[in-house]
Amino acid sequence: xxxxxxxxxxxxxxxxxxxxxxxxxxxxxxxxxxxxxxxxxxxxxxxxxxxxxxxxxxxxxxxxxxxxxxxxxxxxxxxxxxxxxxxxxxxxxxxxxxxxxxxxxxxxxxxxxxxxxxxxxxxxxxxxxxxxxxxxxxxxxxxxxxxxxxxxxxxxxxxxxxxxxxxxxxxxxxxxxxxxxxxxxxxxxxxxxxxxxxxxxxxxxxxxxxxxxxx
Length: 215
Fold this sequence. Notes:
The chain is mainly alpha-helical. The protein has helices at about 20-25, 50-65, 80-100, 110-115, 120-145, 145-160, 165-180, 185-200.
């Protein structure tokens, strides 16, 4: 093995507006463009839609027949963030599958749904079937993962006390009750929901499974 040495290079001097011009002309990733192949690196700060983009891409890979759900590996840091990502991906699969079954998918407000519906009837049917199969695979994996209820319980705690997001916390706890109602986590989630309902009756009925209370 040989090693190469490189002389340090000096960055060329820029004018006062060059950096700003480059920032304005930097390419923006299009989630509806060609699906990425190989390695794609996206630089994004907090709140710019990273999770939204990942969930949309996962939905496209599955619906367009590029990959089966078990072939996708989505990685994030921390159990709470992992549960959040998993829920967001599932919700995107659900919303896309339901929308593609409706008569107005081609003119839907959701750009992703319009993109997936812009095919002939035969391919549209195949895309619906792929999403339906992916959701069945998703739910089977959740049923086999006993730690998911505990993670969701913790997600609710983080939202309630860390982000002051009681609506988002209630959504997480409702999912725990639905997933594992008789477990220790399910009973704890039920107690938390009762406490929120008692202290904040205005939230009653505002939170439903499948809606989002936080980004």
